[in-house]
Automatic annotation (TrEMBL):
Protein's UniProt name: Probable sugar-binding periplasmic protein
Organism: Mesorhizobium captivum
Stored Pfam families: SBP_bac_1
Functional note: Part of a binding-protein-dependent transport system for a sugar.
Similarity remark: Belongs to the bacterial solute-binding protein 1 family.
Taxonomic lineage from the root: Bacteria, Pseudomonadati, Pseudomonadota, Alphaproteobacteria, Hyphomicrobiales
Keyword set includes Ribonucleoprotein: no
Amino acid sequence: MLRKLLIGTALATSFAFSAHAADVKEVQMLHWWTSGGEAAALNVLKQDLAKEGYAWKDVPVAGGGGDAAMTALKAMVAAGNYPTASQMLGYTVLDYAAAGVMGDLTETAKKEGWDKSVPAALQKFSVYDGKWVAAPVNVHSVNWLWINKAVMDKIGGAEPKTFDDFIALLDKAKAAGVIPLALGGQNWQEATMFDSVVLSTGGPEFYKKAMNDLDEESLKSDTMKKSFDNLAKLVTYVDPNFSGRDWNLATAMVIKGDALVQVMGDWAKGEFHAANKTPGTDFLCYRFPGTDGSVIYNSDMFGMFNVPDDRKAAQVALATATLSKSFQSAFNVVKGSVPARTDVPDTDFDACGKKGIADLKKANEGGTLFGSLAQGYGAPPAVANAYKDVISKFVHGQIKTSDEAVTELVKAIDDAK
Ligand code: BGC
């Protein structure tokens, strides 16, 4: 992989020297934002850039969580065909930076004061070797429940504060003949839900030790076994057709009232927003029971490649637009996420967005802000993929017990490290 990437670098560099033409007024962007809510959010960016005279060359690769997109990106980079930027998650940015294929936005960052406005947790992934290599677009958080309000009223449910409350609520939905839990049976969705289950079962310190420090004792502990048992319990509330379902179709089940709740990152709120639904009236957003006070985050970054000189001005325009305060508000209102800057007012955000912004601030200050392992912020991609694989095998019955699950998890993570 590295060797191939480096051949790509050489090609791109020779390109750069031979480029005498005028600046190319085009931004080429690889991303996996193909759902209704995601496309609406991306439009905010396209329009901002169009106002500055930049054409948009879209490279969409469908598949939530971005695994398919990252495979496509690898092929492009190996061929020396760098996009202006690519959507990327955490450790993936660092991998590409280590391979020497990223550009350097430090001059722009200095001019714009990014080091003062972007939270340190994000700078760990957007700055490599002292250079800005990516522009953070947002902060998403995965430990949320998304609930249909009419169904909640119908079953007489209240906000679940503990895991047991949650099970009691799911039972009420089941008794009323509603699908209790909308889940898409794809490994990244299952693992994203499991992130929350681990935090709820073990608490903040346990989450950090197991999911960020990859501490072996924690990974094979009774608390981790209990987390798997809790996951197994949740899966009993899923409808039989869940295998392979896309995340946004699971969200649609909740929007339509076919299901009570989805456990998903706040990109789900982008779907409610696109369907003109209002929090408090049409839907409810609660923290995953037992995780209030902590935030498991991921952040979409636009990784900036070392493009030929005639494409650098477009890249700077993209990065500047992305981190502007007005864009950070307008985009994230539609996307469901919260700003990647600490100085953006919450005025335009709905109640869930305001809560998301306040929760992030509190978690950041209180030391309870943790990277999502499922979403590329807990460990490098090889480890995250091994984790997703084990969780999925457990959900789909190839791994049968929680004892077996922790053994497989430790082994898979060890092999991937
Ligand atoms: C990204 C979100 C995206 C979601 C589903 C996550 O990995 O961070 O921006 O909406 O996948 O596609």
